[in-house]
Structure formats: structure tokens, C-alpha cells
Design a protein that fits this description.
With about 525 residues, the protein is mainly alpha-helical. The chain has one domain (about 5-455, about 470-520). It is about 70% helix and about 0% strand. The protein contains 21 helices and two strands. A two-stranded antiparallel ribbon has the order 1-2. Helix 3 (about 80-105) runs antiparallel to helix 19 (about 475-490), helix 8 (about 205-225) packs antiparallel against helix 10 (about 245-265) and helix 13 crosses helix 20 (about 495-510). The protein is globular and about 70 Å long. The two termini are about 40 Å apart.
């Protein structure tokens, strides 16, 4: 039996784990073990799925024996399986991180009875979104993960979290309603919501109707992906949540919006009808996001703005509609999920160790905790695109694809990408200089912990001093593991680029996806495949 037939387990396992974790509400140790065990098993399954489609091609699974386009179809291809593996890897790291925080704090900030089942439901929604073969099931995946995210964002019930949660809920509901209206209109126009079937039937619609459906889906996904000018909600929503929640939100939620954009643009609306608006949006997203980051003094808000900014790189790659551009975008998505999550996890450690996430109150952390300095420095340089890290390789791939495309707007995006990368380096260098390098006495509003703590590295002999907060080993270990995963993306950049390019080729060709779902005899509308950036 083909391993791809077990793809639904990527959704079912976290749901069953959530149910079991909820039953173990009074047994916190068992609940933690179940959550970590289930997520580890899910990651192993998804690695096998990636291996099965590496050379075996795209596979479709029809739930309940209902044939498409009537039944629920899950599709495993190189793009979806790569996203499953990366998302589950960072979800597992964040779960271990959250477990360490809960044990250290007595679970006051993230109640085990609520956190673990809800977190697993979030993972199930993410997996369902990546595997969905029809628009309505994609909507269901979004709603599952968004419902769980509402709960996770407001853990602790503090005023700022409730206010941020309200903004997040309102924006999410608006985007979901717009998505649902779009699905209804698509069904009304074509009689189907199966994406492989839509890839054929949408080509028969008149240009005006097709463009309207295209724009509505793009706007709905643009809100979820935080593409400018639809990104206003993100910097105010993410920083207020608990550190583990902020980390997984930053790494995953916007990327699912990007995934939906990539999937629908390549499968349902191939060509270049809206490439120019997408390129403009990509440029504005990069520039406005990074300018917002430079104006921040709080590390979490700064990273939230850089998150918005770097979404622009992914949209740039998508808008080029070429194998080179889309392949670089797929690589960059995998890179950014890992790096952005690790930076938010490190920020949680900074806040715990230094008493604040504001650079106005932080200083001397490099001396106080050399390990923490190293954990920040590596992913920060990676995100800024310093050679030889994966951030540099991904940006070089996008720049090369833009130069190959050769249009004035593509050149403007290449310049904008380079400037954004330099400004990202400036932003993280300011954090490094102020939070890690300067002396505590030079800080504008130094935290008493920093002024009182001796200026030497963390040692066990200081564990009994009230003015020093040593970092839990579980939190440090999970962060170190994710930072190492980010470094491994550089070491194994060659195979990852191979998978990314193969995924891009399959998505732009469309025949493998459509025939896997509808049958090998299905006639696929012909589209000109572009190996480089040109048309």
C-alpha cells in the first residue's frame, strides 16, 4: 500500500491526541507525554509522506470512498508534504518549549488543561489546510486552526491579550466570511469546489467572472497572509500572546495564507493576469514592513513587522510565475517558518532572562548569558540574509529569478529586496547592540535584574539568588534544536532547493495534480511552462 494513503492520519492523529489530552486534564505529566508523543508520531508520518512523493509523484486520497469532485479529497505533493514536515517540526519544538515554560512557571501563564488539547487542534487545522484538495475543506482547515488560535491568544485572560484577541478575531472573521462568499460564488459559477475540477472548469468562464473570483480569493488569502495593505492587524495581535503561542503563530499562520495563495494562483488561475498587482503588493509589503520594524523598541513588535516584511519575498516569487521564482519562494517559505519561529522563542527567553522585551530596558545580555546571545545571533543573521545562511540563498534565488524576468517592475522588486535585507540587518543589529552588547548602566530604563546581576555567565551557583532568573533547560534545549534546524537548512540547501524546484515545476505544469485527483485520462488545459523568469 502506498504510504500516501495514510495522509489523513496527519489530521486524525492530532485530533485524537487532543481528545486524549483533554481526558487527562488532571494528570499534567501524562498530558504532556501524550501531546509530545502524538506530535512526534505525526512528524514521522509526514517525513514518510515527503519521501513517498519525492520520486513517486503526486498522490490523492479520497475520504470515505467518495470519488471527486463530490467527496473530500486530500492531495499529497512535494509542496504540501514539505510544508507538513516543516510545520510539524517547528510545532513540536514550540510544544517542548511551552512544556518547559509550564513546568517552570507552574502552568500559570499557559494552563496545561487548556493549552495542550487546543494546540493539537491547531496542528490538525494546519495539516488539513495543507492537504486539502477542495476549497471548502481548505476553509474548514482555516476555521479549525483559527478557532484554536482564538483560545491560545487569550491564555491568561489579561487585558492586553483580550484586546489583541478581539482585533485578531474580528479580522479573521472578516477574511473567513469573504473566503466563504468566494467559495459560494465559485460553486455558483462552476458547480464544484474541487480544486482539480476547478482548474478545468474555471478556464471556460468569461474573463470578467473569472477575474472577480480571482480577486476575491486573493483578498481573503491576502488578509490571512498579512500582505500589505491587509497586514495592519498583525503587529498589534501577535506580541501580546504568551511566548510559545506568539512563536507558533509567527511561524505558521501567515504561511498558510501564503500556501493558499500559491496553490490557487498556480492551479486555479495560472498565467499572469494579476502578476503586476501582486508584484506591487510584494514591494509595498517588504518596504512598509521593514520601515515599521525600524521604528520599534520592543523586540516582539520589531519581529512582527519583519514578519510582515518578509512575506513580500514570498509573494514576489509567486508573482513571477516561473519555475525559478516559485522554487525560490517555496524554499524561502520553509526557511522563514523555521527562522521566524526560533527568533520569537529566543525573544521569550530574553524576556524571561532580562525581565523585558524592550531594548530600552535591556543591556549586557551577551555577558549575562552567552548561550542566549548565540541563540539570538544565528537566526538573526540568517533572517537578515548574511552569507552563507539559508536566508541569503533564498534571497539570491529570488533576485536571480527577478533578473531573468527582466521587467522594470521585477528590477524594482530586486532593488527593494536588497534594500529590505539591508534594513533587516540594521534592525537586528540595533537589537544586538542595545540588548546584548552595551553595559546595563548605559540602558535608558534598565531593569533592576540586569543592574543587580553579576556580569558573568550563568552558573548553577547563582541559582539561589533572587535577582537572577536562570533559563529552564527544556526551553533552552528546544530553542537550540530549532536554531540548529535553521542552520541545517543551509547545510542541506542543495536537496531542499531540488525539492522546491520540483514542487514549483509540478505546480506550474498542473497535470500531475489534476490527473492524480481526476484520473490519468483527464485532459489538462495547456499552459506555457516557463523554466526561467521569462514568458
Amino acid at each position: 500500500m502506498n504510504i500516501a494513503s495514510f495522509a489523513p492520519l496527519a489530521v486524525v492523529l492530532p485530533i485524537l491526541g487532543a481528545a486524549l489530552a483533554f481526558l487527562l486534564i488532571r494528570h499534567s505529566r501524562a498530558q504532556r507525554a501524550v501531546s509530545i508523543g502524538v506530535l512526534s508520531l505525526t512528524l514521522v508520518l509526514e517525513c514518510l509522506l515527503l519521501g513517498s512523493v519525492w520520486d513517486g509523484g503526486t498522490a490523492a486520497v479520497n475520504i470515505g470512498g467518495w470519488l471527486p469532485p463530490w467527496g473530500i479529497t486530500m492531495v499529497v505533493d512535494q509542496f504540501s508534504s514539505l510544508m507538513l514536515v516543516v510545520s510539524s517540526a517547528i510545532s513540536l519544538a514550540v510544544l517542548v518549549y511551552a512544556t518547559g515554560q509550564g513546568m517552570a512557571d507552574g502552568d500559570h501563564d499557559a494552563p496545561v488543561s487548556i493549552f495542550h488539547p487546543t494546540y493539537l487542534i491547531l496542528v490538525a487545522g494546519v495539516s488539513n489546510a495543507f492537504l486539502s484538495g477542495d476549497l471548502f475543506n481548505l476553509y474548514v482547515g482555516f476555521e479549525i486552526l483559527l478557532t484554536a488560535s482564538y483560545v491560545l491568544m487569550t491564555l491568561g485572560g489579561t487585558g492586553p491579550r483580550i484586546r489583541a484577541g478581539v482585533t485578531y478575531v474580528v479580522v479573521s472573521v472578516v477574511s473567513s466570511v469573504l473566503f466563504l462568499i468566494s467559495i459560494a460564488m465559485v460553486y455558483g459559477a462552476t458547480g464544484t469546489v474541487n480544486m482539480a475540477d476547478l482548474a478545468i472548469k474555471l478556464a471556460d468562464l468569461d474573463g470578467g467572472t473569472r477575474t472577480l473570483l480571482h480577486v476575491m480569493l486573493l483578498v481573503a488569502f491576502g488578509i490571512k497572509a498579512a500582505v500589505f495593505p491587509l497586514s495592519f492587524w498583525l503587529p498589534d495581535s501577535y506580541p501580546t500572546a504568551p511566548a510559545p503561542v506568539t512563536a507558533v503563530f509567527a511561524g505558521l499562520l501567515t504561511k498558510i495564507g501564503v500556501y493558499a495563495m500559491v496553490r490557487t494562483e498556480t492551479l486555479l488561475f495560472p498565467g499572469d493576469s494579476l502578476n503586476t498587482p501582486l508584484m506591487v503588493a510584494a514591494l509595498l509589503t517588504m518596504v512598509v514592513g521593514i520601515l515599521g520594524a525600524l521604528a520599534q523598541s520592543d523586540i516582539k513588535r520589531l519581529l512582527s513587522f519583519t514578519l510582515v516584511s518578509h512575506i513580500g519575498y514570498m509573494v514576489f516569487g509567486l508573482a513571477m510565475s516561473s519555475v525559478a521564482g516559485l522554487g525560490a519562494a517555496v524554499f524561502y517559505v520553509a526557511h522563514h517558518i523555521t527562522i521566524q519561529t526560533s527568533l520569537f522563542m529566543v525573544t521569550g527567553l530574553i524576556e524571561r532572562r532580562g525581565g523585558s522585551s524592550s531594548v530600552d530596558r535591556l543591556a549586557g545580555l551577551a555577558t549575562l548569558s552567552p548561550m542566549l546571545a548565540l541563540l539570538f545571533f544565528i537566526p538573526a543573521m540568517n533572517m537578515a540574509g548574511i552569507p552563507p545562511f539559508s536566508g541569503f540563498l533564498g534571497k539570491v534565488g529570488l533576485i536571480q529569478a527577478g533578473i531573468e524576468l527582466g521587467t522594470p517592475l521585477a528590477y524594482a522588486l530586486v532593488i527593494g529586496g536588497v534594500v529590505t535585507s539591508l534594513l533587516t540587518l540594521l534592525a537586528v543589529a540595533r537589537v544586538w547592540n542595545r540588548a546584548f552588547w552595551r553595559k546595563p548602566s548605559d540602558a535608558e530604563h534598565p531593569d533592576p535584574v540586569l543592574l543587580a546581576a553579576p556580569e558573568d555567565s550563568d552558573t548553577g551557583s547563582r541559582a539561589g539568588r533572587k535577582n537572577v532568573t536562570l533559563l529552564p533547560r527544556t526551553m533552552v534545549g528546544s530553542t537550540l534544536g530549532l536554531v540548529a534546524l535553521g542552520v541545517s537548512l543551509t547545510v542541506f540547501a542543495g536537496p531542499l532547493f531540488t525539492v522546491s524546484d520540483q514542487a514549483a515545476h509540478e505546480m506550474l505544469d498542473r497535470s500531475a495534480y489534476i490527473q492524480a485527483v481526476l484520473g490519468e485520462d483527464t485532459q489538462v488545459p495547456s499552459m506555457a511552462l516557463k523554466d526561467g523568469g521569462g514568458k
